[in-house]
Design brief:
Length: 158
């Protein structure tokens, strides 16, 4: 596993005006797997531009503004049973740049049905503090860090 690289990635913690965050259920796994929107960073792509692009691709909207970001790149390793299967089998995990964003649109602007092969099949708003208890275990340490880092943005629309 240590021979495989990390996939560079951006992630979005999208806050609504009530201070809750968007979490979405993955369409490609049998389990009830929920996560924040995230996606690959293209070679030479600016992470801030990439996170807005990913919102458009994954949840059908870019009606958001960047509030802040985690200054560090955060990494996670896939569990052994997913090595060679997840992430097209080419990576050991992901190296991620995370952004807090304020959602400036109406809920109707979130459209999972625009992509013919959507990554998510459901979404909902939840409290920031609930994130670590919702996600798969190997992502939990990153989500715990996001709760601490982005608590200050819950009242962004006030």
């Amino acid at each position: 596993m240590s021979d495989l690289p990390y996939r560079r990635n951006v992630g979005a913690v999208l806050f609504n005006r009530a201070g809750q965050v968007l979490i979405a259920r993955r369409a490609d796994v049998a389990a009830d797997a929920w996560q924040l929107p995230q996606g690959g960073l293209d070679e030479g792509e600016d992470p801030a531009a990439a996170v807005l692009r990913e919102l458009g691709e994954e949840i059908g909207t870019a009606e958001a503004r960047i509030l802040g970001e985690v200054e560090d790149w955060l990494t996670y390793d896939l569990p052994a049973e997913l090595i060679g299967k997840a992430l097209r089998g080419k990576y050991r995990g992901q190296k991620q740049r995370w952004f807090a964003l304020g959602f400036t649109g109406a809920d109707s602007a979130i459209r999972l049905d625009l992509d013919p092969h959507p990554e998510f099949n459901a979404w909902r708003w939840t409290d920031l503090e609930e994130l670590p208890g919702i996600v798969v275990a190997f992502r939990k340490p990153i989500y715990e860090r996001l709760v601490v880092e982005f608590e200050k943005y819950k009242g962004w629309a006030a």
